[in-house]
Fold this sequence. Notes:
The structure holds 2 protein chains of 2 kinds. By secondary structure, chain A is mainly β. Chain A has no helices and 11 strands.
Amino acid sequence: NAGVTQTPKFQVLKTGQSMTLQCAQDMNHNSMYWYRQDPGMGLRLIYYSASEGTTDKGEVPNGYNVSRLNKREFSLRLESAAPSQTSVYFCASSEAQAYQPQHFGDGTRLSIL
Amino acid sequence: EDQVTQSPEALRLQEGESSSLNCSYTVSGLRGLFWYRQDPGKGPEFLFTLYSAGEEKEKERLKATLTKKESFLHITAPKPEDSATYLCAVQARDYKLSFGAGTTVTVRA
Lengths: 113, 109
């Protein structure tokens, strides 16, 4: 049972390059999320999708876009990468947005030079 | 603004030495408080959900409790495999999760 799968696990980009982070879940969850985790800070929500066909901004959406491709897949795109976007990115999913725990993938470690 | 503060930042324990981690919060309309465990290089792993003051949950050597202002994660007789970063998160009225920065627990044999 894979749970939440993120690809790639590691990536190095140059400033200005673009890239898409992929996320897929096999738990038939309705809601999906993208977070970033930086040293000394809590996880911060970038974007979320409460259900298939909807997406909304979180706390730190600037410089990112998302696509809910179908119920299983939720991608995060960096259009023009900046060094401030160097971070570990986590995708999560939950059965519903309210009251339900979120289940996380193992992250993508992204460095932007 | 919703805030979650975890203390201490780091905790070093001897095997068998029980202790508690604190998560204090201010949130508009608490819908739930979640505890996670995170190992190095991994994503957070769900441990517990608490919904109302007075509620308690247990799993092996871990016990989580909730009051109106804070939650505690008690670790009883810890083992080296309990070494990890423990994260607390609160879900507010708008359903978004706010995470604390975590407490890193190291248990020495």
